[in-house]
2-methylcitrate dehydratase
Amino acid sequence: MINHEVRTHKSAEDFPIEEHLAYKIAQVAADSVAVPQDTAEMIINRIIDNAAVAVASVARRPVTSARVMAQAHPVSEGGANVVGIDGTYSAEWAALANGTAVRELDFHDTFLAAEYSHPGDNIPPILAVAQHKGLSGQDLIRGVATGYEIQVNLVKGICLHEWKIDHVAHLGPSVAAGLGTMLDLDVDTIYQAIGQALHTTTATRQSRKGLISSWKAYAPSFAGKMAIEAADRAMRGEGAPAPIWEGEDGFIAWMLHSPDRTYTVPLPGPGEEKRAILETYTKEHSAEYQSQAPIDLARRMKKTLADAGRPTSEIESIVLHTSHHTHYVIGTGANDPQKMDPDASRETLDHSIMYIFAVALEDGGWHHVKSYSPERAHHPETIELWHKISTVEDPEWTRRYHSQDPAEKAFGARAVITFRDGTVIEDEMAVADAHPLGARPFGREQYIEKFRTLAEGIVAPEEQDRFLAAAQNLENLQDLRELNVRVTEENLASAPHTPKGVF
């Protein structure tokens, strides 16, 4: 890997295009190095993972709205599939629909470093273009490997949330780069597409603050749609603002810290394999990633309390000692009263570690639908316990969160439960059970099990078998439409009616 220093340059400076970060990313994307086998196998896992969470959300309102929008843009030649249904639709609208379906339940993969990300968001737009262009499984693998590589390394190098910029600002460029690899575009074209993609996908973090709406699911799918359009324009010879990151009025100078900040972004050198996907991890539970280990911790502590004969009704307080991110984004450090409100949206509860820990401690687990239901959130005992939970930042957990050592990097917490009689029971967990270093790391078997669990009653058994066979044969697959999963008519019929929009 080569570490590239990235800073603002005045317009009058001599700053050749070859030094622009967008150009260096484009060079990585245009490098035709072969994809290693373990990267290819993990891409298959993540395609299965995305399909699992997408079919589970098909009948939900935000996903239904996105699907209906895509259906308003059918095409007679080329086109891409929309999860759940037959037919071919305009690739960018299919990417919006499928990306929203993947993101709706907050249940697919993650990578956390200086910034946060869900790198599986690269797959829907890259797959949609691959289907539209009639490309092969090998082409898709190359494109997705680049998408993950670029997003992961931008996440390592440039913190966005510090300046309240949403993490999709790293997704637009990574999708554009992945499309460039897959379509065998030249460096100059990819450079322009990356610049346009960043320029059009920069947004604030208000989408994840306060009362969180369905836009949380749309934000990454919109970024993917914009990246497709950026690539299309660049292929026609249209240019982008430049230098997009380093310009005097550019991204770093005005969206991030200031013209004075220098960032260090690692990127593969010429001929270096793209392996970043292997550093990412998926979710066993449908919730913000920082709640994965606390859910497993709560599950374990439920048994501890039962063995000690201590009911939750006797609890005086629960304090979760955790990282800066967990405390300030999904904990009480956010100072969001909505995170303590039983009438809050599903998206808001998904970002409340207080609610999540309370339910997981009472239930001994987590369910992607039942745990978020209004009935569950309004249990009087749950509300009482929920409001006894707080978070504090622990410098050691923050240090481990940012550690570059995979064996030390942690996203967990230490839970201190104090009872009314003064008794204290505490426990901690560094990584989720499903994490590569966890108690039950996810492999192909677990990805398939997750798909079958979420598809049960939604996708016919024979359709499940067909999709899984196609996905696992991705390296030899010639028709990428085989990766679309159809749901049952009964499931589609259960989707809510959406009002008429523009289309």
